[in-house]
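### Sample
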Amino acid sequence: MRFAEIRTVLSACLRHRPARTWLLIAMTPLLAIAPGLTALGLQWVVDGVLTGSRPLLVGGALAAAAAGAFGLAGNRVVQVQAGLLAGEVGPELDKEIIRWIATMPTTSHLEETASLHRIEQIRGLGQRIVSFGVSGLVTVQIVLWLGITAVLLARIHPVLVVLPLFAVPSMLLSRVASGKIEATRAETAEHNRAQQHLFAMITESASAKELRLGRSGAHIAGIARHLRGQRDAALWRSTLAVSGLTLTGSLLFVAAFIGALHLTVRLALAGDVSPGTLLLVATLGGQIRGQLELLIFAVSNVVRSAGMARQHLWLRDLYQSATTGTKPSPVRLRDGITLSGVNFSYGGPPVLHDIDLHLAAGQTVALVGDHGSGKTTLVKLLCGFYRPATGTITVDGESLDELDPAGWRNRITAAFQDLSRFPFLAGESVGVGDLPRIHDIADAAERGGAAQVFDRLPQGDQTQLGKSFSDGVELSGGQWQKIALSRAFMRSTPLLAVLDEPTAALDAASEYEVYQRYAAAARRWQQETGGITLLVSHRFATIRMADLIVVLDHGHIIEQGTHAELIERAGRYAHLYGLQAAAYQ
Ligand code: ADP
């Protein structure tokens, strides 16, 4: 556990609810003093009675009553205030987490398994981070209390100091124990997610067809059950181990307590200490047990809170490192976009190797290659969803990392094959391509083909889409693609327009028509802003229209040039082109 995590929780509380947080901080030392004062008061009462000292008796009774009452009421106040604090500050942390996840310019956190694990652990946990984090104050309170108790006991006999020290192994063991449970939870997070994914597969209509044809529903349910069983077994094993550790700690202390009482009785019989001292030791010893349990609980809460806060810090750092750029994007491209020595991997084997490529301003560039050759990855790097492992991407000589990500996004438009099916009104589904102009969709809807889709919907562009609404209409794959394409046409002056196989569900004639309409509009803005169009397609009728064709193979650029140049070269492109041409003959 590092100090940074505790500081994160504390500073969030101070920022959002300073008064409540300061109240809790102020209560900490007072509540640490109260139990010791109660025990002392009780000793004074007994000694007052036995020695006939009225001041000792009355003072002792008052001290014991006041400290006891304050301890009881104060702890209750702290509990309530801590609950309120968690309820108020937790959602603020959640909001922050959601904002980071949703607005992070890069998307690697949503695609890499390790990052997904971490995000799963923090999603919606703000309240728990705070309520567990407040246990940090309880821990401080009990540690202070242990110190006071040590002083009181040392006054009786130096050897009694070891009594509260027996809390230390117990504390350490409980820390190990909570760490163990946390680690098991983290290790089995993948099981949990896989199981949820499988459940979604059984219940989603998208996979229903294949599941029924392959009769694999029962098989998948079996895998989900197995994963669940593995997770439960792992958690059960670590809970058992944790119980053993905590019990060992407690037993150790009970033995020491009995020894301490024995010693005090002998001291009292020898007349070295007053008889009331026995009550002091018994009260302090009795408190140690309760405080010890509270300490174990508080420490394990703090460890859990720190574990969650660590993920919170990780996300914050990731967000900050992804949003370092501040420079504005150029209004118009003069030179173009240049990739130099770009290498990239998704954490596994390299996916792009030493990519050197110049996309000249105003050009239409087509990426060609087998599935998995790295086309979409290249597109994602250009959009700024990922950063190259090595090498640079520059826009008119300016590094993409230096540009303000939001500004660059405003100048990009893209339509992907794995398009989003937004459950909005049909018109809005197009309009969100450029939020400030969400209702100004006529032109984009015409060019991307959404207008034809609207014509067939019961309420036209006011029809609710998506099956999550009772009145929502589900579209066909091709219709969703037309909506997505139109959405991509919303931005009227992009610097980079990407069409990554968004027309794969359309027939060849419709795709050709879409690209013709697109090319007509693109010519205008390509001249106006020097914008670049990047096409990914498997259809050569579309590809051959490009000014530059780039052929990728296993993450390497193996050829580039115009259609005529590449045909003349008689290499890979010419071969693929020949295959498709032959198939149409
Ligand atoms: P293409 O667009 O040419 O079909 P991609 O760029 O999608 O190729 O993929 C290139 C390689 O990167 C493939 O081997 C693919 O398996 C891998 N890949 C793509 N996306 C991811 C991801 N999110 N995580 C890990 N590997 C990925």
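The CA atoms of residues 118 and 311 lie 6 Å apart. This sample (ABC transporter permease) is used throughout the tutorial notebook.
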